[in-house]
Amino acid sequence: MQTDWNALPDEEFRAIFREWVDANCPAELRFMRKQRPTYEEVKDWYQALSKKGWLSPVWPVEYGGMGLNPAKHMIYVEEWARLGCPRIPDHGIGLTGPLLIQYGTEEQKAEFLPKILSGEHLWCQGYSEPNAGSDLASLRTSAVLEDGHFVVNGQKIWTTLAHCANWIFVLVRTDKEAKPQRGISVLLVDMTLPGVTVRPIANLRGEKDFCEVFFDNVKVPAHRLVGEVNQGWTLAKSVLGHERIFLGAPTRPEYALGRLEKLANARGAFEDPAFLSRYAKLRLDLYDLGSSFERFAKILRSGGELGSDVSMLKIVNTELYQRITEEMLMLAGEESRYNDDLETENGDVDAMNLFLDSRAPAIFGGSNEIQRNILAKAVLGLPG
Amino acid sequence: MQTDWNALPDEEFRAIFREWVDANCPAELRFMRKQRPTYEEVKDWYQALSKKGWLSPVWPVEYGGMGLNPAKHMIYVEEWARLGCPRIPDHGIGLTGPLLIQYGTEEQKAEFLPKILSGEHLWCQGYSEPNAGSDLASLRTSAVLEDGHFVVNGQKIWTTLAHCANWIFVLVRTDKEAKPQRGISVLLVDMTLPGVTVRPIANLRGEKDFCEVFFDNVKVPAHRLVGEVNQGWTLAKSVLGHERIFLGAPTRPEYALGRLEKLANARGAFEDPAFLSRYAKLRLDLYDLGSSFERFAKILRSGGELGSDVSMLKIVNTELYQRITEEMLMLAGEESRYNDDLETENGDVDAMNLFLDSRAPAIFGGSNEIQRNILAKAVLGLPG
Amino acid sequence: MPQLVMDDEDGELAMLRDSVAAFAESNPGPKTVRALRGNGRDMDTAQWAEMAEAGWLGLMLPEELGGAGLGIRHQAIISEALGRALIPSPMAKASVLSSLLLAAAPDSAERVRLAEGLIAGSAIVVPAIEANGHLVRLNGRREGNMIRIDGHIEFVEAAHSATDFVVLAEIDGKTLALSIPANAAGLSRADKEGVEGTPLSILVLEDCRVAPEKCLIENVEAKTVEKAIDLARLAASAELSGNASRAFDMAREYTINRVQFGKPIASFQVIQHRLVDLWTEAEMAASAVVNAIEFLEGDDEKAARLAVLAAKARASDAASLIARRAIHLYGAMGFTDESDIGLYLKRAINLGGMLGQAEQLRRQFVIEERAA
Amino acid sequence: MPQLVMDDEDGELAMLRDSVAAFAESNPGPKTVRALRGNGRDMDTAQWAEMAEAGWLGLMLPEELGGAGLGIRHQAIISEALGRALIPSPMAKASVLSSLLLAAAPDSAERVRLAEGLIAGSAIVVPAIEANGHLVRLNGRREGNMIRIDGHIEFVEAAHSATDFVVLAEIDGKTLALSIPANAAGLSRADKEGVEGTPLSILVLEDCRVAPEKCLIENVEAKTVEKAIDLARLAASAELSGNASRAFDMAREYTINRVQFGKPIASFQVIQHRLVDLWTEAEMAASAVVNAIEFLEGDDEKAARLAVLAAKARASDAASLIARRAIHLYGAMGFTDESDIGLYLKRAINLGGMLGQAEQLRRQFVIEERAA
After folding, report:
1. Is A243 a catalytic residue?
2. Where are the domains of chain C?
3. pTM value?
4. CATH code for the domain defined by C12-120
């Protein structure tokens, strides 16, 4: 019989979850340097979770998820981070699944959900386009219905791990006459179809995390449409519910500050009050970000809903991450010129890797400027 | 015979000027705490300069000025600052004089210029209005020509030292139908006329540096108009020529950093590397501001004209001034709670006075936001 | 409006907030600040009496001493509301810190007298036990039955209005907490003008003789006093958080109403983003204070200590930053003494400099955290 | 486009600028950077030879050694232009620093050989005399006629391509400057990958024997070497200033061309103000470099020293800041390896970390200024 996790006291759930994860997540996958390992790299762990039924924390139990409420989900995420488990390819779990559960047909659910859990389908998300970054309303990839198929043409970009995925859900324009934010639909596309081309793009760190995806007369069966035609904008926006809070979870700055501390210990930098003073500012900013995160987490725990104000976490989080990694390069002295990890008696510190990685989160997921625009209007009610 | 100062080598002029100023500027007026002493407080020094013929560095010799070119003027200002001479009430010298010399009638010049030099007329400048701060084009004080007089009604604000002045030159709207920036004229107004009321406004430091000036049916003779009617906007804008550079002269941050250093020496703060590090940043920012100031000064010395880019100095200058005074409060520890000057073995340090004073320059003379708007458009050529 | 967000099932906290708001209606903070400054008065004793009547003084005194037996949560709500309304008072020191020192003392007649006076508002009990965030112990020695004290201590608030001071004295390697009447022989004051225009005094004790029954605690543990100071810090942090929140609201309102170039200046993107950042700081300050309250109510002393240091540092910096930026957003109006926003800045600096500055507390946090 | 503004009556500086621009046309910097990285090559020796042909190497060697006898002013213009065009080369070390060490040496055959090779591009003379901004003296001792060296030195550029190294060795309390052939027995390399993808080496000397005629200077004064390092610092500062200036231009151009929400993003006020601040930083860096050049050309050694420290600190921080902000303004595109802007950031970090970091140089400035 399936446990009703939500009925357990928080601390009991936490203990059960932590014990099993600690026992089953392979040591070599803990605290990985890579933010986004591929499915191949974490396959065993993915399968172990799947088998245990713990792969998908939020999906309802009837679809093979744990059915956790937000409070329990917070614990799941906290323990995951504390134990240093790797990020698994999670677009299927985090985005496709919830999309289908909310808007999909019974057939779509039956076809796709089990294959996400089994690892057979690896999903990616086709939102951004070269001229529609922060401004999704101006997207141009088109889908024209002909003989029971949508014929898709266009290009997506910044598609994370598309080269490791076999399915993509794309936002496409199905009505060119409508206002920019109307006339958009969501399609599920098999990436092995003729006409789909993927070109990985190397990032600043030389890693290929994201891709361009080209669609050249790709014929997508009409039943791969999710929800109603031309309603894709609403669907796309509604998928991230309480999970927006995790964009603000201090995971990355926490990891980076830990590295900074390790490097500082190794180099004796805490003896220098000037470093101590700068470190203290970063440490307290992280500490206080934790307090602010907790404020929003409490709302979820008590069954409330998050408002737009949760975006503040994302801004503080991503800018702090950058400042910590900048301090790391300062501390490194002339070693800041190394791409290679810095050696210490307690293991290597990936200073340059983190410094370069920290450029990304302030850009992706809605740049911090967009976040501030939203906060100014939606939360502060400023005019204009 | 009048010396042709511009013909002297720079260093000779500098030596002559410095020697006399050092010998004649009273010791008790040097390095005054007050940014803007009144005429009464500096009267002797004003008169000494006037008698020597050195009160007005830039006016042509024929009008009683020194006729200095920008290069020599730079030296005049530099030595003035180095010797810690007090600012004298200088609206007549710096603004009214140049305005009349460029646009005034012969009668106006003959009437007003000598009285500025003699100290008989103390001028103030009526530009800002309650609803036209950074946005002069929307000014509302009106002047209607009736029977050979302009009848003036309205209100000016932030009029520096108006309560110590007896003449004011005001921007007034003489044509309400014209576009906002047209229809503005410049009038010279005797402040003893019926209907002129001055109300001093205390500032954050409790000092009364600026005033509101009210005009209630003030009858100003028509010959007090400067230049042509409705051309006041152009006149007002053209008065500050190369002198804009002095808005960026690092005088205030230099003074403040000197105080910070004195306090730090007295409190042993240079023993703390954390303070040393923060001090070093401020010291170098000041040093580099000096290098940037020098770049523009060189243009003047070589006979060139300044572009809008000189505004960068004002931004750097005023924000640095604030940061220095904020550091001073940090250094002061719990003494930051004092309004009173802080005691050291080498004399008092006016930490709170400077901290509060430093709030002003970033606001006045065109807020730093306005300066950045101008630079974005006029120098960087950004769209929109 | 950023504020302390805490569970309030029985509505007690909301009631406290309302009661301070009602008080502020009849005693507007800026008006009181302006009335006090420059004339040598150090506090408004009439308002203090009103606060006593409202039951806000000695809130944290245990019930055995006639106190409300309420906790730091309630104190924080009051302090936050006072901060928002800019109502000046020596609450953090002369109510919170005094209460906690008395609570830590063993039973004695003097303790009871001070506690009763504190609650009633008839005694203004001012602790003069620290400066720059560090304990100050005066020199003491026994002369027969009496204790003789010499020394001085800076930054004493309400030293004119005080009826009694509590000081620490070091005798034979032990620290004593002593109650000294304000009119004691050998006790004098030297005044400095504080940033808000009220005096901050240096208390000077020369050959000041204290009777043995005035000794509140015979052997004070530093830890006990530090804990009391931490609670006072938290109260100051809450007050700063309220100050920051209101200064932010004022900046928001002003920029919405102020029109330049035909538009409210709050419609300019640069102003909008700056307001977002200030709002974020105010929110973070409030969350930091709530975090500290929760740890203070728990069992982990070290965690509570760190959380208080963090809250005071955050709230001090947030309040000062927001008021400084708000003044700038007000433009020339912000630089006038007429505008209340400058008073918020001065309060922020005053409270920020009290009980340890932000930078000092941050360094302390890291040193103590690492000492684990 | 912020740039070094200096008197140029005879147009020499403009000609130098043009010549680098022409070089960059046929050897685009980003292309060279991409070609070099990851394959273990430490510099483009063919381009180095071209630079020699253009007369840019050994520019500061005195005429007696066949040098152009030009000053730091000309060197700065070249370095700035190389920085703008992102052309990678070990110019600051293997041309400027080498030249000045040779200039400081007394006449000798080895000195003449190295100078000739340096100018011709046939010898790549790499000084390995400092790390982290501080001199590194290796252990030396005399063994009969020979000098035996042991020790290691980090962060050596172009150590693969070098034909000769110059090192400092401490013998009997004296410091010697020695020339060591790259293929000397007892000399080996360990490589780390640098931020630009080219190796930075650790030079290891174990029982490395140097013939007496390889000694360039018998008794090196620290002051002489420090002065040489200061001129290399200035060259690096000029290169950083060029880097900063071009990165700013790129950010400006990108934001003018990039349309979002129907407008160029450079039309948003927040972006405009940020660009103004970046432009200001680039301008200040250029002015700081010019200031240092003028002091270096004057007589006041201390003033020159301070001005160099300031210039390197300013230019390093400006270049890094501008490139970081530019990447952000580029959005996702800035995070790709395809975009050149990331290469500017990596160069800025590389040069910024060389010859002392900004923070370190600022502290040094204050310490030396106060030691007056």
Report:
1. yes
2. 12-120, 125-217, 222-371
3. 0.95
4. 1.10.540.10
